[in-house]
Amino acid sequence: MVNKFNLLSNKRFIGIQLSVIILLLIPLVAMQFTNDVRWNVADFLIMGVLLSVAGLLCELVLRHVGNMKMRIFLCVGIIFVLFLVWAEIAVGVFGSIFAGS
């Protein structure tokens, strides 16, 4: 019997985590060439957690939802919420206590 929850042997899980690392390398490289990008360790950690959680939620949807239209709808919703949280943390679109500069 194959364990469905053995994430380390799942190629899609490894792909998600590699994608997170590659996406986080973009601001790291940009910081080397311009002063317009100023991330600190907390910024990298928060974005890494946000991207990982969104990726893992999409992974759970792909594993447990059988209907293709529902899979697409839920994954698009997860990505939409990720962008909303990201925008709020970055620039404070909604003016919450987590609003950025």
Overview features:
101 residues; mainly alpha
Approximately what portion of the residues adopt beta-strand conformation? under 5%
Question: What count of domains describes the coordinates?
Answer: 1
SSE pattern? HHH
The largest sheet, given as strand count, sense and whether it forms a barrel, is: none
Low-confidence spans: none
Q: Supply the number of helical segments.
A: 3
End-to-end Cα distance, whole Å, is 51 Å
In angstroms, what is the radius of gyration? 16 Å
What is the element layout, followed by pairings?
Elements: H1 11-33, H2 41-64, H3 68-91
Helix pairs in contact: 1-2, 2-3
Structure report:
There is one protein chain. This protein has one domain. Helices cover 70% and strands 0% of the residues. The protein has 3 helices and no strands. It has helices spanning 11-33, 41-64, 68-91. Helix 1 runs antiparallel to helix 2 and helix 2 (41-64) packs antiparallel against helix 3.
Task: Provide a compact summary of the structure.
With 101 residues, the protein is mainly α. It has 3 helices and no strands. The chain is 70% helix and 0% strand.
